[in-house]
Specification:
Layout (H helix, E strand, L loop, with lengths): L8 E7 L18 H16 L6 E5 L2 H13 L15 E5 L7 H9 L7 E6 L3 H9 L13 E7 L13 E6 L3
Parallel strand pairs: 1-4, 2-3, 2-4
Antiparallel strand pairs: 1-5, 5-6
Helix pairs in contact: 1-2, 3-4
Amino acid sequence: MTDGEAETRTLVLLRHAKAEQPGNGPDVERRLTARGHADAAAAGAWLARQALLPDVVLCSAARRTRQTWHDVALGMTGVPPEGGRAGTAPVVRYAAAAYEAHPDDLLDLVRMVEPEAHTVLLVAHNPGISLLSALLDPELADREGLRTTDLAVHRTATSWADLTPGDSPIIARHTARG
């Protein structure tokens, strides 16, 4: 990197995969459907093909988001759920605060990521994850929000701690289907 050239960071936002319909149990315990498992694995394969293997994973503690991350990791060929980039394990943080979080709350989670992390994967829920994408890039964010297993890839030259609304353009989008 030359003087004046900013180091870029990549934030991948992922809405959890297709979950079963709400039932009698608590919403936080809803599981993925068979389609959801397949779609999450397809998301992992896409991330691997794009060389977007995370250094840090921030994941809601809800069952469907944990299952989504597990299947994404398996879809990243040869990457076990707690193992990651270039043969090293990503730091995986299951955050209860990411469940039913507002976009500012999700942004606060990202701001706490260690500065040496280059790629962060955030697995969370709507509407918070879609609103965070729109907060980071109001012009290119999908007005209808992220659908299940949608990925929005944001790039920034700002440190995680200094990340602010509007400074992380979307550089790629993908809807994973297995």
